[in-house]
Amino acid sequence: MEMTLCRRHWMSMRRCFPLRSSYFSTIRFISFNYSPTLSSLPFPSYARSLSFSPAATLQSSISPTPSVIPGGDENIDIPMKGSRVLLKGMRYHELEKWVQSHGYRPGQALMLWKRLYGNNNWAQCNEELEGLNKDLKRMLSKHAEFKALHFKDMVTASDGTKKILFTLEDGLVIETVVIPCPRSRTTVCVSSQVGCAMNCQFCYTGRMGLKRNLSAAEIVEQAVFARRLLSHEVGNITNVVFMGMGEPLHNIENVIKAADILVDEQGLHFSPRKVTVSTSGLVPQLKRFLKESDCALAVSLNATTDEVRNWVMPINRKYNLELLLGTLREELQLKRNYKVLFEYVMLAGVNDSIEDAKRLINLVQGIPCKINLITFNPHCGSNFKPTKDEKMIEFRNIVAEAGCVVFLRPSRGDDQMAACGQLGKPGEIQAPLLKVPPKFQAVFEASA
C-alpha cells in the first residue's frame, strides 16, 4: 500500500497507529524542487558566464529533489541519491527523525550514527554495521545509500602530503589533501565545489570556472574517507580546513550543514575551533556564517589596496576592503574569544613591499586576528612568482613588531600539485586572465 501524505495527515495517522505498523513501510512523502538562480550569486557578471551548465546544476546532482519528513514544528529535508536516502547528508537530528519515521527508536539512530562516524568505524556499507538491529539493517539496505564519493586515486608528495582524487556520481572529479604535521596534528583540506567562480588570478582552481556545488554528504565524506584511508598511517586527523576546490561561502547551506556534522560530539567530533572555513570575502554570507556557526573563519586578503585586490581577487569589486574589514570589526564584537585568520599569499613585486606590510598593519587594526603569510605555489595557469624567503621574513618581522600575531606558512605538497592554489584540472574553456595593471607590467616582463 502506498500513500502520499501531507504533514497534518501524517501526524494524525501517527496518533492512530503504532510506529512499527507495516502500513507505514511504503509511505511516500511530499517532495519539492530547489533551483538557485545565477542572478542571485554575489560575483561579477563575467564570472557568472563561467558556470558551464544551467543554474540548476549549482546544487548537487546527488539530491535534486529531497524528500520531506515531518519533524516536530518543522519539516526536515532528507537528501536523496536516486530513490535512496543519502545518510551522510543528514545532521544527527535529521537522521533520528528519518529512522523514527521507519518505526525505530532514537537509540538505534544513535547507534547507526556512531557506526558512520564514531568509534573508528566509518562504515561504508551494511556489512560494516556490527551490532545493529537486523530489521534496521534490512531497512537500510533497501532505503539508504552510504557513499557519495568514489575513490579514484591517491598521490604522495615528497614531504608526506597526500592528495586524494574522488569521482562523483556525475563523473566530475574533486581533490582532497591530507597534510601530516610533526606536532601530532594532521589536517584534511576538503573541497566545497567542483571548480570555483571567484577567478582569483593566482589560483589554479579558479581557471576551471564553476561546475557545481558539492552536497553536504560529498563534503563530509571527504573527511570520513581521509580518516578511513589514512589514520593508521598518519595518525589521528585533528583539523579540517575548507580550503580545497571552491569558495565555501558560495555554497553556504551545504558548508554549514557539513561543518555541523563534522563537529557533532557523538560522531567525528572535531573541535569547532579546528574546523576552519575560508572565504574570498562574500560579505553577506560571511555575516551569516559568523552568526550560525562556531567554527573558525579564514579570510583570503592577499592585497592591501583595492587597486591590487580588484585585479588579483575580482570579488573585491563587489565587496571592497573597507566593507569587508568593517563587517569583520562589527561582527566580531559579538563573538567572545574569537579570532579570524587572514590568509595573505605573497606575490613577488605585487603585494610584498615594505609599504604593503605597513598598510596590512593598519588594515587589521581593531580586528581580533592571526595572519598567515603563504608562499605562492606556481602553476601553468598564472604568471605570478613567489616572494623570496628573505623578503617574506622581513615582511613578517615588520608585521610582528607592530603587535600582530603572524606566521609564515611554507608550501606543502607542491611537487604533486597538492599545495594551496594548485588543486583541480581546468578544461578547454577557462576563466579569463585579467589585464595586468600598468604599474605591474615591468614586474611581469622582468620575470618572463
TrEMBL record:
> Could you tell me which CDD domains the record lists for this protein?
Radical_SAM (cd01335)
List keywords of the entry alphabetically.
4Fe-4S, Cytoplasm, Iron, Iron-sulfur, Metal-binding, Methyltransferase, rRNA processing, S-adenosyl-L-methionine, Transferase
Q: Which Pfam families match?
A: Radical_SAM (PF04055)
Task: Please verify whether the record's keywords include GTP-binding.
Answer: no
- Please give one Gene Ontology molecular function term for this protein: metal ion binding
Q: Which PANTHER family match?
A: 23S RRNA METHYLTRANSFERASE, RADICAL SAM SUPERFAMILY PROTEIN
Query: What name appears for this protein in its UniProt entry?
Result: Radical SAM superfamily protein
- Per the UniProt record, the source organism is Perilla frutescens var. hirtella
